[in-house]
Each structure stands twice: as C-alpha cells, then as structure tokens.
C-alpha cells in the first residue's frame, strides 16, 4: 500500500474522513503549533488553538473539502487554457 499524499486528501475525505484528518494532523500539527507559538509565545495556548483548528476542520469537513476540490478544478481549467 502506498503512502498518502496531500493530493489524496480531498478524495480520501469522502471515502475515509478519519484517515484524511489523521493524515493532515500527523503532517501539519507540529508545524501549526510552531507557527502559533511564534505569535502567542505560550506552548499550552498554542496547542489549544491548533486543537481547536483541527476540531473546526472536522466539523466543517464537507464544506472545506468541497471548496478545495473546486479550487483544484478551477486551477486545472486555468492551466488547461494556458496550454
């Protein structure tokens, strides 16, 4: 079985939303915590904020991934017209 990539997330969100969120969490949690920490300067608060972000992603997963898919289609159409 091949490993997942960022490009797999939109389609995976429909077939296995838990795995898609797990992939995003595993690959972006630490980076997001570091980014928030640079602003907040409190690691516990930074982690709370990032946890809240992931909870919001889960709650709005259908809306978020529909928008992502739409952007991919739009970008594909634009690239195709430039070909």
Question: What would you note in describing this structure?
Answer:
With 83 residues, the chain is mainly alpha-helical. It has one domain: Rna Polymerase Sigma Factor, Chain: A (Orthogonal Bundle), CATH 1.10.1740. It is built from 4 helices and no strands. It is extended and about 45 Å long. The N and C termini lie far apart (34 Å).
List the helices and strands and how they pair.
Blueprint: H1 9-15, H2 17-40, H3 43-59, H4 61-82
Helix pairs in contact: 1-2, 1-4, 2-3
Tally the beta strands. 0
Mean pLDDT: 78
Number of helical stretches of at least 4 residues: 4
Main pleated-sheet profile: none
Offer a concise description of the structure.
The chain is mainly alpha-helical. It contains 4 helices and no strands.
Keywords:
4 helices, 0% strand, mainly alpha, 83 residues, extended
